[in-house]
Amino acid sequence: MLSLNGWLDGITALLVVVFCVVFSLFFYFRARKINTPLLKKGAGMGLFVGLLWLGPTTDFLFVLFTEKHISDFYDITLYGLLSYIWVGPAFLCGVYIGTQLLVPDKKRSLFAVFFPLAIIFEIILIIDVENTFSFTLNEGDLIDSQFIYFSPAFFFIATFLVFILLFNGFGSLLKVFQSTGDIRKRFSYLSYAFIIFIVVAVFDAFIDVSTAGFLFVIRLLMISCAWTLYLGLKS
Questions:
Q1: pTM for this structure?
Q2: What residue numbers bound the domain in which 227 lies?
Q3: How many domains does the chain have?
């Protein structure tokens, strides 16, 4: 039997996954219709970002339909993989969007640096997942995973988050002050999407927010990021 916090955790995670997947499919078909390659990358980023909550969503569904956690059927490390295997693809989509909008002439150079790093992160995550996360399960709650500070994967994901925050988030914000009209509006949406995404990701991945009652708010903010990303890239 789930506690109120368990229900809140599961329902909000499920909402993030469902809404981000639906939004991403809409983005993709819209991008095909209007022939906007950048929006296709936005669809990819929205999809992969939403799937970052696949771990708690899967555990929630297991509890609902079997009254047992995913760890009762599989190794608990699967929970971490379900959530974070999408980090590399989401990050690369973000790098593509940021470089294409801000420094298109540097796109190949930045990809030459970050593509191998994303691959290395995925490999470390798969082969060393036990030393990457700490898992907890309190009675009435869903499984919770947090990155182990100073583990190899921690440094990679911290680098990815800092880059997206500074380059995509604050880079787009700088463009807001340097432009006018529709372009300014587009960069306003993008700066919001990237900055809020980083805030939500840090709270959800590194901080135990369940006891503070922030889950509902920060996951609604995550859904809003997907939509504002579309608004910034649709034209």
A1: 0.91
A2: 4-233
A3: 1
